From TrEMBL:
Pathway where this protein functions: Carbohydrate degradation; 2-deoxy-D-ribose 1-phosphate degradation; D-glyceraldehyde 3-phosphate and acetaldehyde from 2-deoxy-alpha-D-ribose 1-phosphate: step 2/2
Region (Disordered): 1-23
Record flagged with keyword Cell cycle: no
GO terms assigned for molecular function: deoxyribose-phosphate aldolase activity
Superkingdom classification of source: Bacteria
Gene Ontology biological process: carbohydrate catabolic process; deoxyribonucleotide catabolic process
Catalytic activity annotation: 2-deoxy-D-ribose 5-phosphate = D-glyceraldehyde 3-phosphate + acetaldehyde
Protein name per its UniProtKB record: Deoxyribose-phosphate aldolase
Main location: cytoplasm
Pfam families: DeoC (PF01791)
Localization, UniProt: Cytoplasmic granule
InterPro entries: Aldolase_TIM (IPR013785), DeoC (IPR011343), DeoC/FbaB/LacD_aldolase (IPR002915)
SUPFAM superfamilies according to UniProt: Aldolase (SSF51569)
Length: 333
């Protein structure tokens, strides 16, 4: 039987996991302005991570089940419909076929994903489909993916999504503030978004592929956390370059430094370009090596993905049967 860990925190009255909020701090440029990132060293460290752990057979299957529990199962397509969202939510509740769950010895505690992520207009459909499941609904907002609509409209979009029932809001920052080093403007923007979220948790998308340097990624991460972000997230999935291990390493080092300075635990979410079970393993290893076991739980780690789930289920079927099945046997919806 596989040994996996449940969510660390109890369910809140609304069904979503209870997560301790980041109250934020005053803007403290002294924590990041003089930072210098050695890009070559970051790339070497990132490249070494997959080789540091050789996870095979039952252990690999257990890690992949763990990966399922931190996936933000996502649909952000222009042709999304309530029906598509409903089908995706059914997959979120039962991400692995019943016969595989039984064979893995998980029938008493079957896995489910960390959250379902949709556009604001699809939140109500997701909330309805997930009622009673304890799976949170996340919504992108603030003019996703570019984030270049006027700030009052971005804040109103947050309030709309929260009003529809979203438990988490994935906001996008104004990249210009980072590129021009206008940290006060970035801090004020994220702080206003944090306030607009109310009780919903804020995940700040940095769109790292647009930020040009690892130094900018580190600084933007620190400002977003100081402004009250509960999670920092790599990408919208729409940039030319999305989540990479060197960028993710830089961000988790920033949240570790922030935690050392303030005592607050901040979550991390890579997104964009993560499609395979191998990708899931690489990012789980990154979190375990850099931050420890606590950051393998869904209140502190998420993976933004959709097609990844199908590949994980395929790998689990291989573990159970010894054979690889066609991808069509593992549909998302």
């Amino acid at each position: 039987m596989l040994q996996t860990s449940p969510h660390q925190n109890p369910a809140a009255p609304g069904g979503a996991p209870e997560i301790v909020r980041n109250p934020g701090t005053a803007l403290r440029p002294n924590l990041f302005e003089d930072i210098r990132i050695n890009a070559s060293a970051s790339e070497r460290r990132a490249a070494s991570l997959p080789a540091r752990r050789s996870v095979k057979k039952a252990y690999q299957a257990a890690w992949l089940v763990k990966a399922i529990t931190v996936i933000d199962l996502t649909t952000l397509a222009g042709d999304d419909t309530a029906g598509r969202v409903h089908r995706l939510c059914e997959k979120a509740k039962r991400p692995v076929r019943d016969d595989l769950v039984e064979a893995l010895g998980l029938a008493d505690a079957p896995p489910k994903v960390g959250a379902v992520c949709v556009y604001p207009t699809m939140v109500a459909a997701a909330v309805k489909a997930l009622r009673g499941s304890a799976i949170p609904v996340a919504s992108v907002a603030t003019g996703f993916p570019a984030g270049l609509t006027p700030l009052p409209l971005r804040l109103e979009e947050i309030r709309y999504a929260v009003g529809e029932g979203a438990d988490e809001i994935d906001i996008v920052i104004t990249r210009e503030h980072v590129l021009t080093q206008n940290w006060q403007a970035l801090y004020d923007e994220v702080a206003a978004m944090r306030e607009a979220c109310g009780a919903a948790h804020l995940k700040a998308i940095l769109a790292t592929g647009d930020l040009k340097t690892l130094g900018n990624v580190y600084k933007a991460s620190m400002v977003a956390m100081q402004a009250g972000a509960d999670f920092i997230k790599t990408s919208t999935g729409k940039e030319d370059v999305n989540a990479t291990l060197p960028v993710s390493l830089t961000m988790v080092r920033a949240l570790r430094d922030f935690g050392d300075a303030t005592g607050f635990q901040i979550g991390f979410k890579p997104a964009g370009g993560l499609r395979t079970a191998k990708d899931a393993m690489n990012w789980l290893i990154l979190m375990k090596e850099e931050l420890g076991r606590r950051w393998l739980e869904p209140d502190l780690f998420r993976i933004g993905a959709s097609s990844m789930l199908g590949d994980i289920e395929r790998q689990l079927e291989h573990y159970v049967t010894g054979r690889y099945s066609a991808a069509l046997r593992h549909p998302l919806a």
